[in-house]
């Protein structure tokens, strides 16, 4: 390891800013799908319980119903598998929580179990990269169940409610397949085309295109027609990534994808034909490829390729132990979550709060990849909860209008949460707060003043303790990760240069393409490691000059690899 990295910095290289942490983003396309699915799944269960006069059981059905928030970006075959695992995992978490609640009256033990469950949820969701809402939903449900009055004899029946509600949520999320079986992949590619036609940030366009590639790769090719349709979608993504199509044409294709008409049928150029054939020849990229096939942005040619190695995916095909090996940053994050949530819950308990699980959930929501991101989340959480408490006070008169109005108000808050979560976490928290307080009223009417005071105190305690743990428990390995990434970039660049120097007849397109994507992924890993380390507290000074030099030296190599692979680029001047 280089000696110039041995000094310590007093804090993150990125400052802890307030304005940027609270800045609102554009609303995400397709937000209404998880919103409607969750409202239908939760609403159906709540209405049944309301008709039976057992709204006190809504916590158990909510665990299953909230599974409807997941996997909406996946094609239906992958969605079916992923949602199945989500429902089973949620049921398992509820089982541990309810068994704990029935086995002990010790608040200390209950907080400890809730904290451990929160840590497991965080590590597993990060490992499989399941995406929003990630670990927050199972942590909220499990922490609530740990503190609900429970008898061991009732646990099986309550678990059955969670499983039944989860099965219904699965049906709700799969039902659109009857009308538009190609819907997820068509919408994903349409978003990528619209992003390529727009003037947004390059990183945002690349992320949208990468998500589209990932979705398309998960489409099973079980028939000749399916293979042809997937090829058309791949060709559209290649055309959008190449930059050869006019923005107006890209928007027309996107409109066609969103309609119920046939897929746009393009005639591939010679370069595109070679690209498609070359991609299909790579192991793991054909039918049945595992979820999460890597798709990264090439800095040299500007294309998005799908030939990257497999990364952990949401269907569990890549072993979890690979991402939880010794030295993994996920272990540090897990330690932060376990300790932070436990301390937050115990502090809340000592302050006399009757619902310390709110402090546990708040602390769990704070922990992100590094200190800067955790600061942003804590600030968002506190602001959103404070405004949300004001909204709950405004909604209080509704609690006197009957249980049906109470259920409808909670469902409206759930829908508003999903409508605003892509704009900003603090804005969504404004609606999450009254929703959770209204759900507390399902079982039994609670004093509003006590609820508001407990929630406010738990929010402050959870955020403060969570942030303190982020500053005290730093990931000392993130700087090492940057060093390893630097070495990997140097090695892959040297291998690529060797291929470029070899006689053309001794190197085939597969080797060149594989070298290009290995170097692309090494550069992506380097940038991610540098960004994570740059936002972490008390790290060795990053070798920014070496990182910048490694990126600059690699870009011409990537450009030359793209020139060799794509005949359309061979007439362009070589990058300096």
From TrEMBL:
The keyword Zinc-finger does not apply. Residues 344-469 form the Integral membrane bound transporter domain. Residues 281-318 are annotated as: Disordered. It is found in: Cell membrane. It is a multi-pass membrane protein. Keywords: Cell membrane, Membrane, Transmembrane, Transmembrane helix. Its main location: membrane. InterPro entries: Memb_transporter_dom. The chain crosses the membrane at residues 35-52, 58-76, 83-102, 159-179, 386-413, 425-444, 456-474. Belongs to the YccS/YhfK family. This is FUSC family protein. It comes from Streptacidiphilus jeojiensis.
